[in-house]
Amino acid sequence: MVNITNRLNEDAYPNVAERLRQFETCLSNSTVNTLNDRSHFHTQKDPLGSGETRSYPFESAGQVVLINKLDYNTDALTLCEVQVFAEVCSIVTTTSSAESIQSASTSFELTAQPPNCEEVAFAPTPESPSTGRRCLCRNRANVSIPITDEEVLARIETLKATLTVDKKTTSASKRKLISATDGRTSSKIIGAVGIVMLCVPVVFIVAMDLSRCVSWWSGLHN
User: Each residue of 128-144: pLDDT tens digit?
Assistant: First the structure.
């Protein structure tokens, strides 16, 4: 028999019932969840409320209790959320000389005498008259990480320095400084016309200055 109790607090978790649902409980002899090794399993589809306990009987013994979430989009269950109780039986075996008792939870068949069972907890929860049940794990309900304003500002500045990108180093900025070639005929014609239009005024101005220089040189020698 395996008993599972929802340990979440409704004040800290408003949707506590929606958290502990759609899970599968199975008894196995290995921590690897394989269909061949599981002796028996139970599926819990309806919600399990805060403080509510469900019992799951198993026909045979096992060493490991596995709890799998059927919805893979949610996080795995932790010991802060679920408390598991199981029965540990003393296995009695008969030998040729005497009877010996093995206190281990295994899948061996019982012989000679019925098992002597006691209830133990895999995840014990301490009881306190003032605070009630308290989870010792570091979960969202009791984690408090003190941080000063200076540390927050320092982390923000570090993130800014890490995430800020210089615009001059981007590919878009570099492409603006590079002239791309254009193999079209119309583009070549327009380029040639533009070069001629730029060269004509320069040649005209140089020719005028050159003629004045020639006239001045001729007058100097005459």
Answer: 444 444 444 444 444 45
Percent of the residues in the chain that have a pLDDT greater than 90, as a whole number: 10
Asked whether 91 and 104 are in contact (CB, 8 A), the reply is: yes
Place of tokens 């090794």: 37
Q: In 3D, which of 31, 28, 5 has the Cα closest to residue 84?
A: 5
Contact predicate 48/10, CB 8 Å: no
Helix, strand or coil, per DSSP, at residue 13: coil
d(CA 60, CA 39): 7
For the chain, the domains span 2-84, 188-221
Angstrom distance (rounded) from CA 139 to CA 129: 22
Helix (H, G, I), strand (E, B) or coil at 28: strand
Type of residue numbered 195: I
* pLDDT tens-place string over residues 52-63: 777 777 666 666
What CA–CA distance (Å, rounded) separates 65 from 25? Answer: 7
**This model's pTM is above 0.70:** no
The whole-angstrom separation of Cα 124 and Cα 85 is: 9
CB atoms closer than 10 angstroms to residue 66: 17
Element (H, E) at 191: helix 185-221
| Complete DSSP assignment for 149-161 | HHHHHHHHHHHHH
The answer to whether 5 touches 52, Cβ cutoff 8 Å, is yes
Distance, C-alpha 165 to centroid of its chain: 26
Taking CA 139 as the corner, what is the angle to CA 121 and CA 149, rounded to the nearest 5 degrees?
155
